[in-house]
């Protein structure tokens, strides 16, 4: 059986993938890159890995928070409110974030003699985030294969799915979404107004999931 390293943020999508593909995931890696919600997401990532008995790795990429331009790195007040379809959400792009994380993950996976890397991008990301789109994933997959001796794979099985469809999968798997975090403002509770909160709420409604304290 092939064994993979999952890039795990601690949000709904990557936690669902952790549960769905648990038998193929040898380890999961969470990156601390300085975003408002990084620490709360990382806690959820760790808890879910502990529940499933999957090794959790945390890697510091804090240079991104110091040197990159994004409202996601500038505090809660900088985060725009609205839907991902709104033009103002473009400010939340962290330049080449997934490219950097996937490059590190590929090196980590090859060092551990694994077969590849998994990432949980989905179709709702495509409008705003260029490093979540199918063309980028395909290009990065070729780069990872070409740049590793054993031609590691990049798997992104949620690329064509909506967040609602992912939530429905998670519901069928028994995923506890109260142990996930997504709010871009990074507060104790989800604000309900930023793009990722709006999309999260829509996905939970689509799947018929009610969380009492979100």
Which descriptors apply to this entry?
alpha/beta; 214 residues
Give structural notes.
- This protein has seven helices and five strands.
- With 214 residues, it is α/β, with parallel strands linked by helices.
- It has a five-stranded parallel β-sheet with strand order 3-2-1-4-5, sandwiched between helices.
- Helix 1 (12-20) links the parallel strand 1 (4-7) and strand 2 (25-32).
- Helix 1 packs across helix 6 (163-173) and helix 6 (163-173) crosses helix 7 (195-207).
- The N and C termini lie far apart (37 Å).
- The model has no long low-confidence stretch (mean pLDDT 92).
Given as residue ranges, the uncertain stretches (5+ residues, pLDDT < 50) are none
Question: How many distinct helices?
Answer: 7
Percent range of helical residues: 25-40%
Number of separate strands? 5
Largest sheet: 5 strands, parallel
Structural class: alpha/beta
């Amino acid at each position: 059986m092939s064994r993979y390293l999952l890039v795990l943020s601690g949000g709904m999508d990557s936690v669902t993938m952790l549960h769905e593909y648990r038998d193929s995931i040898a380890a999961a890696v969470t990156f601390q890159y300085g975003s408002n919600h990084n620490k709360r997401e990382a806690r959820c990532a760790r808890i879910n890995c502990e529940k499933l008995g999957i090794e959790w790795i945390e890697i510091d990429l804090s240079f991104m928070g110091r040197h990159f331009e994004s409202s996601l790195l500038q505090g809660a007040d900088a985060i725009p409110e609205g839907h991902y379809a709104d033009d103002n959400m473009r400010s939340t792009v962290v330049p080449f974030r997934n490219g950097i994380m996937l490059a590190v993950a590929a090196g980590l996976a090859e060092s551990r003699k694994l077969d590849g890397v998994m990432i949980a991008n989905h179709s709702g990301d495509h409008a705003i985030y260029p490093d979540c789109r199918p063309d980028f994933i395909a290009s990065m997959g070729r780069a990872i294969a070409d740049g590793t001796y054993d031609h590691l794979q990049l798997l992104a099985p949620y690329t064509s799915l909506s967040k609602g469809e992912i939530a429905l999968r998670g519901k069928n798997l028994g995923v506890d979404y109260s142990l996930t975090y997504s709010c871009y403002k990074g507060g104790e509770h989800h604000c309900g107004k930023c793009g990722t909160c709006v999309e999260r709420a829509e996905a939970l409604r689509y799947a018929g999931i009610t969380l009492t304290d979100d």
